[in-house]
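pinned: reference chain
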Amino acid sequence: MSTVAASLQVILHERVDQAPSDPALAFVDSQGRFAWQSRGDIHDRAAGYSAALLEQGLRPGDVCLLALPSTESCATLLVATLLLGAVPLLVAPPVLPGRESFLIALIRVLIRKTGARLVIVPATLTDLDEITRGHGESCPVVRDTDLSPLRGTRIPRIAPAEKSTAVLQLTSGTTGSPRICVWTQTAVVASLEGMALAMRLREGDVCLNWTPLYHDMGLANNFLLCLTQGIPLALLSPTDFIRNPALWLRGLSDTGSTVTWSPNFGFALAARKVRDHEVEGVRLERVRAFWNAAERIHLDTLESFHRRFAPLGVRLDALKTNYGCAENVGGATFSDPDGVFTVERVDERLLQEKGIARPLPEVPEGTPHVSVIGVGRPCPGIRIHILSRTGRPLRDGQIGEVALETPSQMREYLGHARGTRRALRDGYLRTGDLGYLRDGELFWVGRLRERIMLRGRKLDPSEFERVLLKIPGLRHGCFVAFGVDDPEHGTQRVIVAVEIADPALDPDGLSAAIRGEVHRQLGVTVDDLLLVLPGTLVKTSSGKRRHRVFRKAYLTGELRAAAFVDQN
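pinned: its C-alpha cells
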C-alpha cells in the first residue's frame, strides 16, 4: 500500500485516479446511521468548496483557520483547503456555553502569528466583527453554513514543493497561547508512510475514529493516514461519543471496522458506562487493533475494557498501544500489530526516587510496585534515545527524556525561536516526555515539564494562573496544580491548591468561584481543591512553583493536613 509522492495533494489525487468509486468516508450520526461516500464523491464535493474558498480570497500557500467541530462540514472543508494548496490550521471550537470570547481571543492571536488569510467558524459563533477588529479586510471570517460548493468549477491540481508547509498544528494544550507546529510536506508524507508500515495496514482494513480532527491523533493518525493509504474511514462526533460511548462499539460493528483509536480515558469510559442492552447484537471480532494513545495508559483500563467486552469478541491481543506527539506529526512508536502489548511491574520506590525501572519477576506482598505499559517500537526510519538532563544517553531501564531521530519532525514552532531551539537540538527532537527503553521497547512514564494529562489533553499547570489571578481573595501566583492518575476513569484527576489572602474570607464562596472560573475558562473540573494559608506553597529560590514537590506532599497526605479549608 506504499505510495511514492512528494506531497499530500499528489497522493490524494492519485488515490482518486486509481479507484474513484472505492469508499472513502462515512459520517456516523448520533443514532448510529451512516452512508459511505466514495473517493470521487469526496473529491468532487471538496473541489466545489475549494472554488468557494478561492472566491473568499484564499490562495495556494495561504493559511486557513478552521475553528469547527469535527463534523462532515469540517472534514469536507479540510480536504477543500488541501486541494487548493492552502495550509489548514484546525482550532478547537468552544464546547461550553459562554466560552466564545476565549475562542475569539485565540483566533485573533493565531491570525497575527500565522498571517492567516481566511477564518471559518461555526454558525453558532455570532460575534464575527470582534474577530476581524484590527485586521480589516486582510482576513475575512465566514461561517461554514454561509459557504456553498461551486459545482463544475475546475481547480488546478497543486503539487507543492517537498519542503513547503503542508499543515499547521496546535500543540495539545489548546488554551492560553498554544505553540504552532509547522509540518512540512516531507515530514507529513514520511510520517504517514511510517505509520502505515508500523500498523501493517492492508487491503480490507476499515477505520473508525471519534477523536477530534483538531487533535494530531484525529488529524494525522486517522484522517490523513486513511485518505492517503486508501483506507475507508468512518467518523463519529467526539461529543456523541462522550454522551453515548456505546455508539463507538456499535459503529465499529456496523461499519465492519478493523482499526480504531482512543485515548485511555475513552476505553475506561466505555467499560464503565456502556450497558448490555446498548450493544445487543454488536460483534467486535473483526477489530484487530484498538489503538490506545495520547495520555498515560493504565493496565487496569486495558484489563477492564477487555473483560467487559470479551463477550462481544474483543481479544486481548487486539488492544494496542502507541506513543506520539504533534512535534513528530503523529505516531512515533507502535506495539506489535500481531501480538499482546508489553507490561512491566517495576519497583515503585526505585522508579520514583532513583529514576530506575527495575522489573519485579514476582511481587512480594506489601512491596510498592507499579505497572508500566510499553508503548511499542519506533516506526521505520525513527530511532529513540533516552537522554539525561545533560544530554547523555542512558542505558535500558534508566528514566530520562525521550528524544527522537526522525524524518517526520516539525520544522519549527512558528514564531517561537526559543521553543524551537529547546525542542530541536543536536539532531534530536526533544519531546519533553519521560520514559525508558527495554530491548527496543519504549515505556512512557510521565512528563518532564509537569503537564497534566486529561482525557488526551495536555494541560500545563501555568494555564491556571490567568484564571486564578482574576479571583479576589487569593494570593497572586501562589498556587500549584498537578494531575494524579485515576485508573478507574482512565485519566488523571486535577488537583489545585491555592493560598488565600485572608483567613476570614468565606471559604465556600471562594471555592465556588475557583471551581466555576476554572471550568468556564479552561473547561476543566477541579477534582480536589485545597485552600491553604499564606506561605504554605513555598517556591524555589528562583521563584518557580514546585508542582512536583507538592504533588508528592499531596500523595503522602502532608498537603491535605496543611490545608486551612478542605473544599471537597
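why pinned: The chain has a mean pLDDT of 90. The longest helix spans residues 39-55.
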